[in-house]
Each structure stands twice: as C-alpha cells, then as structure tokens.
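Troubleshooting entry. Yesterday's outputs looked truncated, so today I'm pasting the complete records for two proteins to confirm everything comes through intact. If either block looks cut off, that's the bug. Protein one:
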Amino acid sequence: MSTSARRPAAGTAVTRPATTTAVRAPTLTSRRAAPVQTGRKDTILLAAERLFAQRGYHAVSIRQIAEEAGVPLALVGYYFGQKHELFAAIFQHWSTTIDERLAGLRAAVQAGGDQLLRHIVEAFVNPVLRLRASPEGEFYALLVARELAYASPEADEVLRRHFDPMAHAFVDALQGALPGSTPADAAWGYQFALGALLHHLSDHRVERLSRGSARANDPQARDRLLDFIEGGLRATRTSAPPRRARSPATTTTSTTTITTTRRPR
C-alpha cells in the first residue's frame, strides 16, 4: 500500500473534530433538558403524600421521601424546602377540591328551596368521596382523614390556611338553612359532619362490626352518610327541648340517703 493511500484525505481531517463535537453536543443538551427535572417535582409530591397518608407526618423523614421518589435527597429541599413546607404544598396542590366544594355550596344557596340543607351536605361530601374513589386522589383523601384529625402545629397551619375559609362559608350557609339555629349550632353541626366524613374516608372496622355484610368505602354508603349528616344537623339546633337538670331536692335526698346508711366503724 502506498504512503499516499495511508494518508487521511483532507476532508477527513476536517470532519473528524466536527464529528466529535456532533456526538458530544446532544449529550450535553440532553443533560440540561427540563422534562426529567420537572417530572421529579411531581414524583416527590406524590411520594410524600403517599408516605404521610400511610405512616403519618411525624413518622416520615425527608430521606425516606427521597428514597420513595427515587431522587437525590438534596432535590427535595431544592423544590420544597423543609418538611412542613412540603406537607403544606400537598394541600396547595389539591386546592381545586376545596374550590369544587365551594362552587357546589354557592349553587345550593342560590337555588334555595326545600332541599337547601340536603344540597349543602352534598356539596360538602360528594367531591371528597369522588376524590377518595379515584386512583390519583386516594392517598390525599386518606392524608386529610389522618392528619387533620390531630392537632399538630403542621396540621393546624394547613387547617387555618386552606380549610378554615371554606368551613366558615359552610357554617354560614348551614345557619341560614336551619331556621332558629345559632352560630354555635352551625359550628357544632359542621364539626360533627366533618367527623363523620373523615371517619368514613379511612374506616375499615365496619366490615368486622357488620360481620362482613358491609364493605369499607362502599360507594353505596354515600346516601347513608348524607342522611346521617342531614339528620344530625337538624337535631343540633338549640330550639330542641333541653334536657331536664337534676333538681336540688333530688340531690339532697341522695346525699341524705348516703349519709344515713353510712355506719361508724
């Protein structure tokens, strides 16, 4: 083979560096691409939501959330800050559920009529039950049922910021729908309704208590829950006859009886 044949062609010498650059450039560009990073933020949020719902806020660490999400530990702090900020971000993410409940409440109040109370209860309950039945909202509904029932500082902050404005709107509507009720009646009624709803979201004991004839989170139980809450709200008004207090005479008689039957030792 001649020496000239072994020499690279002039064009080849120029092309070789260009080819190297062409290979490296896409690699650098792909590392800078945003889609993977953007998806990681949602992945972290979902991992935190799932772990908080299953184990409780205080039983979960940032490291465990990072491991569940499959991301570096520092990335959790980069996107969300401290753990309580990540906790609050979950509720901000699902704020559309609160918007849906308030929209239903406004529609019920504007429509009025004999079924006003029932429609208020439906606006309060139905969006949450739909969320609980959906694959994407199951863990959030469980998180609400589990964490907001406890008076931790983190849960109280979430309640004040996200849920109290909605609660005040429902309390005002309940008082308007229950003639003769007081603000206290409406507030107690709202709390009792909330307790029934939260318990229904997370309860499985009904299967055991019913000896298998009832299924936990059964969609067919929705009407039972609505009836229960509506009936309870009607019964919490102060216009209901108060219980008779024990009379002083009865107390005196009881005390006297105890005294006379006591024998000196």
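Protein two, checking that the full record survives here as well:
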Amino acid sequence: MATILRLEGFLATLLCLSTATLSAAQEATATPPELTEVARFDHQVTGVTVSADGRIFVNFPRWTEDVDISVAELVDGARQPYPNAEWNGWSNLESAEVSAADHFVNVQSVVADGGGSLWVLDPAAPATGFIVENGPKLVQIDLASDDVVRVIAFGPDVAPQGSYLNDVRFSPDGGHAYITDSGPADALIVVDLETGTGRRVLEDHFSVAVDPDVTVTHAGEPVRRPDNRGAAFAADSIALSQDGETLFWKPLTGTTLYSIATEMLDDPSRSVDEVAAAVLDRGEVGVTDGLWMDGAGRIYLSNVEDDAVRRWADGEVSLVLQDDRLRWPDTFSEGPDGTIYVTTSRIMDMPWYKPENSRIVATTLWSFEPEN
C-alpha cells in the first residue's frame, strides 16, 4: 500500500509539473501585442489619459526638476500647456509670488471621466516632500471649452503633511471620486463630488500601507537610495469596475490586490471597523504601479520589476507583454478604439536611486492593441 501511495504521489507531482510547464510554455510562445511609441519627453511623465474623442493628455510631476509644463495635451506628438500657460505657471523658483491654489504645483495624475471633463490631481508636494500650503486639489476642466470649471481644495484633514495624493477614479454616476494616498500618511480618500467634501478612510490599514516584507526590485536588483532606503510607496494602484460598484487598489510596495464595495466607501455613517471588515483580498499580483480595468472586467497591471504588462482576470494573472523599453510602466489609459496607452516613468533610473544619473529623466508614452 505504501508503494502504491508513493507512486500516486509521484504521478500527481509529475502532473502538476507538466501543467505548470505547459502554462509557462503557452505564456512564452503567445504572440505579444506590438509596442508602439506614441511620444517621447525630455521630462519625467507619470499620468496619461485619453478622452472619449481621442485627445491625449499627460502630466509631469516636480520630482527632480522644476518642470516647465505640469499638464499637457499632445498635439501632433508635441506638448501644449493645458488648459493654458497660466495654470502651468507655478514653479519652485517663483513659489512665493504665484498662488498654489489656482496653479498646478506638482501634478501626479490626469483622468478624463468620459463625461466631458478632464480632472487633474495635484498633491502639491514637490519631490514627494512637504506639501505647499493651499496646494492640494482636484481640478475639473471642461473639455469642450478648455476652461477650468471647478477646483476642489483639500485641507489638512484630507491631505495632511505626509500625504501624497496619487491617482483617482470616478464613479459612473458622477457622484464620487476615489483617490489613493501613497505617502507615509497612507489611506484612501473618498470625495463627494456634489458637495466637494473629502474623507480619509482605511487610514493605516494593512491594505493601504507599505508591506515591510516587500523589497521593490528591478532586473533582480533592489531599488534603493544611497542611504539604503528602498522604494516605499503606499496605496498607489487603483481601478474601478465599469458599473462603479467595486474599487480595487494596492500599495505599490506590496504584492496583494484588494477590493471593496463602493457602497461601503460612499456612506459616511459606516464605522471604521465596518469599512475595514469589508476589504477583500483578491490575490497576489506582484509589485505594480498603475492599474486599468477594461470593459470585460480584466485589470491591466504595470509590472514594474520586470518591464512588463500583466493582466488579472478572476484571480488569475497572465502576461500581456514584456519589453525592456517598458522601464517602470506607470499609468494606463484606454482610447475610444480600445488601444491601451501606458507611460514609462523610469523611477528606478532617477537620481534618487542612481545618484550618477541626470536629474532630468527622459521618458516615453507607448501604446498597444490588446488581444480580445
């Protein structure tokens, strides 16, 4: 009987190994989508968004340089200050003379909501450091007129020192915005767009915090500063289901994807414990920066450690494409024709981590046509 059991165990192991090998072979031999260069920049890009009529917008944070343009529309591949030069007129050099409340300070994300507006998320923390007073805000721009129509300012109750507002998604009904805070003051932020009020939720919860057991690497080498600090970013990646009922997120320095029913976030009467108890573990997906959910409910994952794009579907993660040119894939957006756009922000190449490199980091916007 023992011999039979050992034989059965050996056969079961062999079957598992064969299945794993087959899956790896299928992934390796699948024809990846072609990566197409859309635009090159002499500055470090993070966000990209494509409007319903195909207009492309990008943003450039003030991390290692005093950038000349914070938000740009790409016109024939060239950057045009958006919505105008005035809104892009703030600088570190002239910060005492230019108001932070009605100028872009350190833009981290741009998102077209599909309803005719472009939203600009400004954490107002140059170099991810101290927040400029009166700077944190969410700016709504009407795409038909190219005019700023609303500024939702965030005070210290929503964006305290130590916060870094990272990315944002909007409910289909236009009622709420959901923001990740990737700074040491980790949290999710829920904004009631009718009243313009924001609330911090899940503060210091494990689902939004840096995982101390995770070391971000690139090409197998730890991404570290000269003083040995690693790349430590809290809640960063974010995606919203097409029906607006489920929000997904994860810390960048972490490997687990989390979700929650948005009805739990939208209701301010829910207790801290109730919201925490509603968080779901959706499985291991690796170290990621940007997320994008398509119409089929699949989430594209920027796999920053391997210069790759992967895709999560019903708990399973598969490779979409891997290319050495995808140096830290950052933010995704989807065009009206289904084309996926992705920025490469090259964070591992910054002088923060490689002091010998230039403070001016050249970056690229790419696109690819995903398979169905």
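Both blocks look complete. Sanity check on protein two: The longest strand covers residues 147-153.
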